[in-house]
Amino acid sequence: MSSPNTDEIINRILRQMGQLPTSLEVVCRLMLMLRNPTQENEQVVQALFSDSQLSAQLVRKLETNEEVEVDAQGNRVQRQRSESEIMEILSAAVLEMGYTAILRLVSALSVGRLLADEHKGYGIGRRELWLHSVIVGLIAQRLAELLADTGKASFDPSLAFIGGMMHDIGKVAISSELAERLEEVKTAALATGANWNSIERQFCSVDHAVLGGRLAKEWKLPDEICDGIRFHHEPGNGPKLSSLIHVADYASRYIGNPGGWSGYAITVDPSAAGMCQLRLEDVQRVVLRLCQDRDSIESYASM
């Protein structure tokens, strides 16, 4: 359990983030629904419509040039739409685009926008952290599917995807803290045997995994996801999902550099794979297939 001082530090950092994006409670509910091939379209539309901010963002994104009004100065103007019009647009989008495309769009409109920013405290450029997050989410999902197919272990692929995609969300919160002592942080990150969690605790008294778990709780996500994020660098202390995310995070290095200083450096718990009943060949198979599917990765990350 964190000390009062640690809680105070976490609260201060989270306050500095400002207004959080659309509730991920709604977004992740959509992710779970949209990954179900038998899901009723009407229920998906109702879930999209239940969050006014999200539905407004979606409508703006889905509008064609012919549907956008322009003022006298040539600026795009968002026309006020009735509830029935919004429902009709969302319904048509779900039907025409399909669940996978809607899932990409919804996730990019929410957490993707945070992760896709530049994070100077880590030396991470625009889209680098988002691309890494997408890869980890996809690896975690496919590992979960593989385990389910072989009957070795039972992980919900949807939760695995969400936990993997959000595993580094704490870096969004802590980046500005690190940026205040940029040269010192950069020197520490480039040192032999550098470990980001240790660096974060040295300069900020808290690491990105702890902050990420706290953010997930703020968004009222399931405890399994919150703890999976919180312990993804300490898999032995968390649920089995944290071990799966830990393995996916490590395996992602074989597909792409997560960006930043010393981007490939990660401390790996050799027992993590065994904790979730994965063999080395299981991980290799998933990584190889995802390497051959780079178009899908980029298609997702570019939303």
How many strand segments? 2
Portion in beta strands:
under 5%
Main sheet? 2 strands, antiparallel
Low-confidence stretches: none
Strand numbers in spatial order across the main sheet:
1-2
Q: Could you report the average pLDDT, rounded to the nearest whole number?
A: 86
CATH topology annotation of the largest domain: Hypothetical protein af1432
Residues in helices, as a percent range: 55-70%
Measured on Cα atoms, how large is the radius of gyration?
A: 20 Å
How many helix segments? 17
Distance between the termini: 38 Å
CATH homologous superfamily heading of the largest domain: Hypothetical protein af1432
Query: What is the class of the largest domain in the CATH system?
Result: Mainly Alpha
- SSE order in H/E notation? HHHHEEHHHHHHHHHHHHH
CATH architectural group of the largest domain: Orthogonal Bundle
Q: In the residues, how many domains can be counted?
A: 2
Outline type: globular
* Class of secondary structure makeup: mainly alpha
How is this structure best described in words?
The protein has helices at residues 4-16, 24-34, 41-49, 52-62, 83-97, 99-115, 128-150, 157-165, 169-179, 182-189, 196-204, 208-218, 223-230, 240-251, 272-275, 280-291, 294-301, and strands at residues 69-70, 76-77. By secondary structure, it is mostly helical. The protein folds into 2 domains: 22-115, no CATH class; 119-303, Hypothetical protein af1432 (Orthogonal Bundle), CATH 1.10.3210.10. The protein has a two-stranded antiparallel ribbon with strand order 1-2. It is globular, with a radius of gyration of 20 Å.
